[in-house]
Write a structure and sequence with these properties.
The protein is α+β, with helices and mostly antiparallel strands. 31% of the residues lie in helices and 38% in strands.
């Protein structure tokens, strides 16, 4: 597969949102055994959702972006890529796309709660761990941040 087969974009239709939720279900509920009642929450309504779309397979990855506190801060979450598409640089591509979108919306800082197993991935993108390890849905996580702008 080559990079031209994939696009990064915002969810813009109900069928895209359903596809994003299917990917999340496959990754978090089926693969990682996160209970459905913990996977879906009230923030799905207000979040901006993003996709990785393969020209033949459709939606293969997703993440969401929420306004966070303090002002000028946003939070990335529910970052999921189907297993057969991992290790191809698509996650980094989606994060760069989301960071560009966040900058254009005036955000200066991104926060995320990374599963410990992917901490190195986020560090490679310039995120810095803050605080200790905590459990979310029974999975070890660590809070990470990245400054987008010093203005």
């Amino acid at each position: 597969m080559n990079a031209s087969e994939f696009t990064f974009r915002r969810v813009s239709a109900d069928d895209e949102m359903r596809a994003a939720l299917r990917v999340r279900h496959m990754v978090f509920c089926d693969e990682q055994h996160v209970p459905e009642d913990l996977e879906y929450d009230e923030f799905d309504e207000s979040a901006v959702h993003y996709l990785i779309v393969h020209d033949k397979r459709g939606v293969i990855g997703t993440a969401r972006l929420l306004e966070y506190h303090p002002a000028g801060t946003c939070k990335v979450g529910r970052f999921a890529i189907l297993p057969e598409f991992r290790g191809m640089g698509l996650g980094a591509g989606l994060m760069r796309f989301i960071e560009d979108e966040a900058r254009s919306q005036g955000y200066r800082l991104i926060v995320l709660d990374a599963q410990l197993q992917v901490r190195v991935f986020y560090e490679g993108l310039g995120y810095v761990a803050e605080g200790g390890i905590f459990l979310d849905a029974g999975i070890e996580h660590i809070r990470m941040t990245k400054v987008l702008s010093d203005e």
